[in-house]
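pasting Signal transduction histidine-protein kinase ArlS for the record, 259 residues
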Amino acid sequence: MDFKPVLIQTGDEIEELATVYNDMMIKLNDYVDQQKRFVSDVSHELRTPLAVLDGHLNLLNRWGKNDPEVLDESLIASIEEVKTMRTMLEEMLALARLESIDFQDEDLICDPTEVSNFLMKNFLLIHPDLKMSVKNDLSPDSLAHIYPNHYEQGLKILIDNAIKYSPKDRQEVNLHLAEDEDYIITTVEDRGYGISEDDLKHVFERFFRADKARNRDIGGTGLGLSIINRLVENYEGEISVTSVLGEGSKFTLKIPKIK
Ligand code: ADP
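structre below
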């Protein structure tokens, strides 16, 4: 969108009105630009799995009927691509929903202990061999100012990543709940592959995936952390990460406390 500010220097209410109008238009401009970038990123990202799927379907059509090996390989690869596209779609919907939330204050009460206990049980059901520890330093009445499903969604992405980006024999997730005067502080630490210093700057960007070679086998969309980034922005929280390549990563999520 091409917006030219209205310049009025009359020193009165009309100038004030023009300033308010300019500010509003700049925000609207940013928003439209963001939406455009989003649509263009999404089209770009969907193009790759679609092209792969197209390739496999053509292969199946030509050779797959008579060659059981081609049939097998292409079917498995196609199912994987469809799975990636479905996840991408679900995550994009999650992002879009975050843009339009309008919660009442009474919805924004979250007990982090309850949510993390619930998640830990669920993860252990799916990954029975996972080493998972929870250290809880919260006082019993400490609550976070966030819609509980959003806290759960954020924490789930972090734990999911901690498992996904760790070699099978080092799958260990250490969850720590703490607080300071203003924030509930949740850290998720793993002993996985870690993230290089260069990549660390980009991990919260939409569709960014570090270590493309390995990640091709791991599966993912590069949207999870950008969802958390958007989430914390909505709640005036913070997300940060420290990592040592080959040793592991530690993500810290800070959500304002209810006082
Ligand atoms: P996805 O996992 O779908 O690729 P994310 O936005 O959740 O997308 O993560 C972006 C990238 O950051 C991942 O592709 C991965 O390279 C890196 N990453 C995220 N979490 C971790 C982690 N715990 N350990 C190592 N790398 C990670």
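The mean pLDDT is 90.
The CA atoms of residues 119 and 125 lie 10 Å apart.
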